[in-house]
């Protein structure tokens, strides 16, 4: 019998990929069941993400589906082998499944493109800023401490990405979260993170119009291969993960548009007096000056 607990994002994604591969291979559910010595219902549970597939069973399935050994093959095998276990498990008593799934997903991707129209992205937040954001929805002090700890621990993955690109609306820089000290530390943190060679930070200014605010918040996670990319969208009362290639392509196009309209990326090495036009760095420095 399948477990009663809801499938994790990893289980859902692995199941969806196996379903797509089986469809392309034109194999029936009964043929797959015979291949892994299981009944037809178990195949359905695997493809729905309700149960894990054993590593040896997955190997047989991928070979039967014509998935050649390479990045995709290895990534799918790794997803089955990980079983979703990691440091985030210690927060199960406080956080919901979606938050844990987000941390697990971040641990296995190679790149991130994120657009945030209202607050600084979680992976770039200081402790003070994160505490002020989370306290607006969590009043229990013990839970608040655990939430903040979880968010800060998530940030360890930042150094492991091949690329991290954030487009942040100017309103996120100017909306006070906490006091002036918290905001100054947060803006300085943006400049500090932008010093990393694989990190790009851009600000979308007010004068470029409403495009950024209309597009809402989203994150594009780059998998080991393009076919394993994931879209993550947060809504007021929920959040969702999607591996739908059409939606991912739409958001990728939207991100390119946002980046083209935003100010030039932060370049900490450039002196302010050498800038002929306003860039993201000069706007952040202007906001910092206003916070004095």
Helix and strand topology:
Layout: H1 9-25, H2 29-35, H3 40-47, H4 55-64, H5 71-82, H6 97-106, E1 111-116, H7 127-135, H8 141-154, E2 163-169, H9 170-174, H10 180-193, E3 199-204, H11 211-215, E4 218-222, E5 230-234, E6 239-242, H12 245-261, H13 280-290
Parallel strand pairs: 1-2, 2-3
Antiparallel strand pairs: 1-4, 4-5, 5-6
Helix pairs in contact: 2-3, 4-5, 7-8, 10-13
Structure explained in plain terms:
- This protein has 292 residues and is an alpha/beta fold.
- The protein contains 13 helices and 6 strands.
- α4 packs antiparallel against α5 (71-82), α7 crosses α8 (141-154) and α10 runs antiparallel to α13 (280-290).
- The protein starts with 8 loop residues before the first helix and ends with a helix.
- The mean pLDDT is 89.
In short:
With about 290 residues, the protein is α/β, with parallel strands linked by helices. The protein is about 50% helix and about 10% strand.
